[in-house]
Amino acid sequence: xxxxxxxxxxxxxxxxxxxxxxxxxxxxxxxxxxxxxxxxxxxxxxxxxxxxxxxxxxxxxxxxxxxxxxxxxxxxxxxxxxxxxxxxxxxxxxxxxxxxxxxxxxxxxxxxxxxxxxxxxxxxxxxxxxxxxxxxxxxxxxxxxxxxxxxxxxxxxxxxxxxxxxxxxxxxxxxxxxxxxxxxxxxxxxxxxxxxxxxxxxxxxxxxxxxxxxxxxxxxxxxxxxxxxxxxxxxxxxxxxxxxxxxxxxxxxxxxxxxxxxxxxxxxxxxxxxxxxxxxxxxxxxxxxxxxxxxxxxxxxxxxxxxxxxxxxxxxxxxxxxxxxxxxxxxxxxxxxxxxxxxxxxxxxxxxxxxxxxxxxxxxxxxxxxxxxxxxxxxxxxxxxxxxxxxxxxxxxxxxxxxxxxxxxxxxxxxxxxxxxxxxxxxxxxxxxxxxxxxxxxxxxxxxxxxxxxxxxxxxxxxxxxxxxxxxxxxxxxxxxxxxxxxxxxxxxxxxxxxxxxxxxxxxxxxxxxxxxxxxxxxxxxxxxxxxxxxxxxxxxxxxxxxxxxxxxxxxxxx
Length: 559
Prior knowledge:
Blueprint: H1 2-33, E1 47-50, E2 53-54, E3 64-65, E4 71-74, H2 75-81, E5 87-89, E6 94-98, E7 103-107, E8 112-115, E9 118-121, E10 127-129, E11 132-136, H3 141-144, E12 146-151, E13 156-161, E14 166-171, E15 175-178, E16 187-191, E17 196-202, E18 207-211, E19 217-221, E20 225-232, E21 245-250, E22 271-274, E23 277-279, E24 287-289, H4 292-304, E25 308-314, H5 319-326, H6 329-346, E26 350-354, H7 363-379, E27 383-388, H8 403-407, E28 412-416, H9 434-447, E29 453-458, E30 460-466, E31 471-477, H10 481-484, E32 491-494, E33 499-506, E34 509-515, H11 518-530, E35 535-539, H12 546-555
Helix pairs in contact: 6-7, 11-12
């Protein structure tokens, strides 16, 4: 009897252990599988699918659909997903939004939209509800180059970008679409044999990530899809140069014709920037055509020699004229239209925007001007480069630029790395010391991609006359330095600025010069290559010595 009771007790404990182990195994299995069955669907509002992502939970405001079927998105959500620089223009009570090649204007409460200067009627209108602006998104396909489809049965909006790669396929048999790429995962949609789906990607385990016609994103086994077809390749719309940039500004005043360079070649250059276009003083957006009769001949010469022409557009440092234009959208628009007319007339390849001497308070509006200019140029396949000064300095010459946001809205940003000590300086110093250029370039590189930055290099220096009372600078072109210096002038190398330096007496006065020559230019070119910059630019043509172009050809263009 005692043995039987002991045996039964032992069996009882064994059964309890086995049951406990099974329960533990089930619990572990449930916890492992449960996340793949977790429901995270948003069912209480309209879902928004942009390309291959359901971004509904990231919406800042609800979507609403009018009785006539117009889909409205908030300004905040358009800013988040389509246009970081969408802008409410208080002066004219309108929304301005831009894309790759479009500038669109929607007056609040009016059934119209203006796209790249052409106005048309639309069913919806930009609307303000409480403190939020809403735009008739489904009528803006042409602005953002998208397709918008509303699936009423699933209350989902599918937005497809027409500049992205699109691959479609057929479903080979009835199949459940899984939330994750696992067989033991919940079903998000069911699709039947023969239905078309969008193929997003495939993985090494044989799963295909897809988007169904109902707007659901999930996974099916790759062997369940057939007839994969590339409907559309990714659209490339680049206005950037193929390879490194070597630009030379070809400046001439408004009182003379464009240079006649017939028969001339510049070996180390692939872009020329003639001073074709200048703002008219207080002209409310009018532009002086500085190309005149010589412009067409100049462009023909450049293209025959394989040079791109990025025509310079200057504000001629006219601070009040610039202020007036920047602070009025219609004047900005008029200026851009006038510039386009001239750029098309002369068949230039791009615009080099050279606005200097601006109010610091106009910094954001200058960025707006760049934001609104860039798409209009890209529409015609023209590039945009923007000149800026060193980050630290005076309010009107340095603090007036938002370099980061400018760089995001142009092909290239050109750091004019010269005039470290210039006409406004009260003490003698170098025009472009290596240490100063390097320090400021590092500031650019903190926020801006290296392949967006072009390093501007001077082809001139200054001689400083010290008469005991003040330091007076005189510009000396690189090719005139030998004529300016006395034969017995002692020249030494300064390692910090990586320039030759001389100091000499003449007519009872002391003269100082930090020399720009082949050695100093070579060091600056090294900075460009070491930091993998987009290229270099030189101010200005006809100041150089011939040896410079061979140096640029070898170090920058790799020829």
